[in-house]
Amino acid sequence: MRTRAWRSSTSNWLPLTLALVVAGCSTPSVIQPPKHPPLPSPSPIPADIDSIPDPVPRAEPKSARGNPAFYDVLGKRYFVLNSADGYVERGVASWYGPGFHAASTSNGERYDMYAMTGAHKTLPLPAYVQVTNLSNGKHVVVRLNDRGPFKEGRIIDLSYTAAAKLDMLKAGTVFVEVRALTPMEKNAPPPAPAATSDLYVQAGAFATEANASKLLGQLHSKGIDNAFVRQAQVEGKTLYRVHVGPIPSVNEFDKVVKRLRMLGFPDARLAAN
User: Fold this and answer.
1) How far apart are CA 240 and CA 217, in angstroms?
2) Cβ 123 vs Cβ 129: under 8 Å
3) pLDDT tens digit string along 42-69?
4) What CATH number is given for 199-270 in this structure?
5) Residue 102 neighbours by CB distance under 10 Å
6) What do you get for the CA distance between the two ends of the chain, in Å?
7) Tens of pLDDT along 151-184?
8) Where are the domains of the chain?
């Protein structure tokens, strides 16, 4: 795990060792962060960053440092998966760059902002995943060697190069699909670009339409006029999901989730497709 506190505009980081130390103390104490020599500055950005190749998935032993059974960050416990097989998830990706170049990653390697790497909260380290920008269809393969991001609503943090190849540097965050690859796979069939890049917040999901309508009425009464009920089939059963949207950007999505939770809707989160 990281041994220093990291913070960026797109991610919240906390050293796991510090979290464990604080949890084990019986009396308050002031803990001074360890002193580290200055990290070396990254070399100039390559002229043709798109020419940097994606890694080819291969069988690797699990990192001794990066795969505890579980760990705690910011009051939340994360359980590390035994295997990445079959893992697919959609959500928000962010990226981290020069401020972390050459710092130690969770599995003990040095972070290289120009390598094709990434950070994930629960997949085993190392693992290989294909990341697809759902707004433009661009996709890359990255090797996971770090933990994070711990900012709520983010599912993966990417290196500078991976973010550049997905065309997300300027936006900082994008809606992506993350799909685990086996050692025999170089790429998986990429999903089609989303018909729209808009996002939706799910305020609640119910087995009965009456309960969904009740929540919808509560949202409308509090001025959330773009709330609606969407019916879905999940494992052969009908589910009534109360959604808010469309929301045009990740920044606006974060604001809507924060507003809903302040209004008393704690289950607000990214809506599944």
Assistant:
1) 14
2) yes
3) 667 777 888 999 999 999 999 988 899 9
4) 3.30.70.1070
5) 14
6) 33
7) 888 999 999 999 999 999 999 999 999 999 988 7
8) 16-181, 199-270
Cα 95 from Cα 266, distance rounded (Å): 27
Beta-carbon contacts of residue 230 (< 8 Å; ≥ 6 apart) = 240, 241, 242, 243
- Is residue 65 a contact partner of residue 72, using CB atoms and an 8 Å limit? no
- The pTM is what? 0.67
Q: Which residue type sits at 271?
A: A
Residues 6+ apart with CB under 8 A from 223: none
The whole-angstrom distance between residue 25's C-alpha and the CA centroid of its chain comes to 30
For the 16-181 domain, the top CATH level (class) is mainly beta
Cα 255 from Cα 24, distance rounded (Å): 35
Nearest to 67 by CA among 161, 145, 180, 137: 145
Distances (CA, A) of 128 to 54, 62, 180, 218: 10, 12, 6, 43
Stretches where the chain sits below pLDDT 70 are 1-43, 190-197, 272-273
150-154, Cβ contacts within 8 angstroms, sequence gap of 24 or more: 150/11, 150/12, 150/13, 150/14, 150/73, 150/74, 150/121, 151/10, 151/11, 151/12, 151/94, 153/91, 153/92, 153/253, 153/254, 153/257, 153/269, 153/270, 154/10, 154/11, 154/91, 154/92, 154/93, 154/94
